[in-house]
Amino acid sequence: xxxxxxxxxxxxxxxxxxxxxxxxxxxxxxxxxxxxxxxxxxxxxxxxxxxxxxxxxxxxxxxxxxxxxxxxxxxxxxxxxxxxxxxxxxxxxxxxxxxxxxxxxxxxx
Amino acid sequence: xxxxxxxxxxxxxxxxxxxxxxxxxxxxxxxxxxxxxxxxxxxxxxxxxxxxxxxxxxxxxxxxxxxxxxxxxxxxxxxxxxxxxxxxxxxxxxxxxxxxxxxxxxxxxxxxxxxxx
Lengths: 109, 117
What we know:
The structure holds 2 protein chains of 2 kinds.
Chain A: E1 3-5, E2 9-13, E3 18-25, E4 31-37, E5 44-49, E6 53-57, E7 60-65, E8 70-75, E9 84-91, E10 97-99, E11 103-108
Parallel strand pairs in A: 2-11
Antiparallel strand pairs in A: 1-3, 3-8, 4-5, 4-9, 6-7, 7-8, 9-10, 9-11
Chain B: E1 4-7, E2 10-13, E3 19-25, E4 31-37, E5 43-51, E6 54-57, E7 65-66, E8 76-78, E9 87-94, E10 107-108, E11 112-116
Parallel strand pairs in B: 2-11
Antiparallel strand pairs in B: 1-3, 3-8, 4-5, 4-9, 5-6, 7-8, 9-10, 9-11
């Protein structure tokens, strides 16, 4: 079977740093993606890790450890606009995505 | 800028009606996908296509069907809508696999929120 686990919700204050973890059990793993979705909106791509290590894109970073079947998304200098749902997704070799249940991030002033 | 469009954005329809949800993209992407998402839940892949005349069922069983006659167009059809079909349907597209990081990204349309009464 295929499963991804991530926390259902996280709360943090503006300016803080937050880490959203994702563990997975899948067959045919090719990489881990992260998507952001604001309430009622379309998911938007944040990052992708195909190899172990850290990928940095502005305030967002993502990490992958294939041996531990684990990854995380790190959000720095949190802003109110970062309040959204964040999904990790396993990518298979054909490019299909299997999504986790999502983590709802609430940023407080 | 991603150019992927879905119509209608909202649809309320009675049980038993046939409906087609439209999805078009102007990026020339080979791969297209349909996802179903209930409020506060994850996205489930219901159909995908890797090119013209290629369609496959996804991981979540669905009574819908799809077609891919043109690269840019990937409509989803429900022959007889039921209340259990009430959900949001999201269409996405991506480039064919390459060494470019751009091929890892799926671009999503705004979604169609379907309510079957």
